[in-house]
Design brief:
about 150 residues; alpha/beta; five-stranded parallel sheet; about 40% helix; globular; about 20% strand; Ribose 5-phosphate Isomerase B, Chain: A
């Protein structure tokens, strides 16, 4: 069974519930790191858990949500091996996988519609990394001081 981790703050809670339903319909084993209602919480607590799963190789892909998508993306990208892409339309979601080999999708719940968020999730998970010239670029993402 395909595994995926997901986490959100209070602003992304409703979208997260709908995304989990979609993922389960598609046969995913979903690890939900919370939050579990709309009470105010701190987004890094959830983003770090999803990113840790990717970093440790427990899952291939993750999804994080907050109001702007920025906070969870910044937190997730602090982890080695994580390439979290903040996307606000379908084409960016597709390109984040095809060109950047993103492994976590960040969704700005206050700035995209629920149908668009669901479409972005589908595209993110269906799109393969193109490799080729993009692989060279992705390999340069982790900064190594020389």
């Amino acid at each position: 069974m395909k595994k995926i981790s997901i986490g959100s703050d209070h602003a992304g809670f409703i979208y997260k519930k709908n995304i989990i339903a979609l993922l389960q319909e598609q046969g995913y084993d979903v690890h939900d790191y919370g939050c579990y209602d709309e009470s105010s919480v701190d987004y890094p607590d959830f983003a770090h858990q999803v990113a840790k799963d990717v970093e440790e190789g427990k899952i291939e892909f993750g999804i994080v949500l907050c109001g702007s998508g920025n906070g969870v993306a910044i937190a997730a990208n602090k982890h080695p091996k994580v390439r979290c892409a903040l996307c606000w339309n379908a084409e960016l979601s597709r390109l984040s996988r095809a060109h950047n080999d993103a492994n976590i999708l960040s969704i700005p719940a206050r700035y995209v519609s629920l149908p668009l968020a669901l479409e972005m999730v589908k595209l993110f998970l269906e799109t393969s990394f193109d490799g080729g010239r993009h692989l060279i670029r992705v390999q340069k993402i982790n900064y190594l001081e020389s």
